[in-house]
Amino acid sequence: MSNNLLAGKKGIITGALDENSIAWKVALKAKEQGAKFVLTNAPVALRMGGIQELAKECNTEVIPADATSVDDITKLYTESKDILGGNFDFLLHSIGMSPNVRKGKAYNDLNYDWLQKTYDISAVSFHKMMQTADKMDVMNNYGSILGLSYIAAQRTYPFYNDMADAKALLESIARSYGYHFGKRKNVRVNTISQSPTPTTAGSGISGFDSFYNFAEKMSPLGNATAEECADYIIMMFSDFTKKVTMQNLFHDGGYSFTGISEELIEEMK
């Protein structure tokens, strides 16, 4: 249902790979709510997914960009401004990848060159996107910038490996840059810590199915779906959250503050 929450707003959505992606669902909802935006992903990811179909459905364009490259980000912003006809009201950072996870390296046997890639892709790219936007002055007053995180940034989940460290860095960058962007431009910066979600990226983590079921039993409201996360992101892009910044916002059905549930106690009996 459209309430035109984003009428007149312009932005960039990263990371839409396929219809299971949170970013994919954000794009559909942003279009429904009246926004204009450009889609982007790394060149290698564009060959794997169906983002061109999404672009057609959203009446927009796809600009390939490696978010770890400042030159690529600069080109992305320049071309997006031309397409959209002005500066941006929102940016979504939905980017994360660990070579150590993909290649089955345990946390106590990390390849450190791969670890640096994990940090650069999954966290430092967030800083690069914001710093480049800041220097180019492409964000509108009271714009909204969001990154997607996970509770493993605060708690230990052995299967999440070095991605947990990357998410902790991502959240720290959101707080630190949120202060500077807020002071200079009234731009708000937040992260959303989502429930385990069966996206293409999430499902690739070892033990994901078991933990997904565990979190479902722990959460009073159950796991939040990708669709529900997209709704939350749309709200964060809207003018209803103009004074929310530097926060890590849990969107997990109450999992993050539940010690144990009755369902799990019954199972242990």
UniProtKB/TrEMBL annotation:
Pathway: Lipid metabolism; fatty acid biosynthesis. It catalyses: a 2,3-saturated acyl-[ACP] + NAD(+) = a (2E)-enoyl-[ACP] + NADH + H(+). GO terms for biological process: fatty acid biosynthetic process. Its EC number is 1.3.1.9. It comes from the Bacteria. Pfam families: adh_short_C2. The active site is at residues 150, 160. PANTHER family: ENOYL-[ACYL-CARRIER-PROTEIN] REDUCTASE, ENOYL-[ACYL-CARRIER-PROTEIN] REDUCTASE [NADH], CHLOROPLASTIC. Belongs to the short-chain dehydrogenases/reductases (SDR) family. FabI subfamily. This is Enoyl-[acyl-carrier-protein] reductase [NADH]. It comes from Marivirga tractuosa (strain ATCC 23168 / DSM 4126 / NBRC 15989 / NCIMB 1408 / VKM B-1430 / H-43).
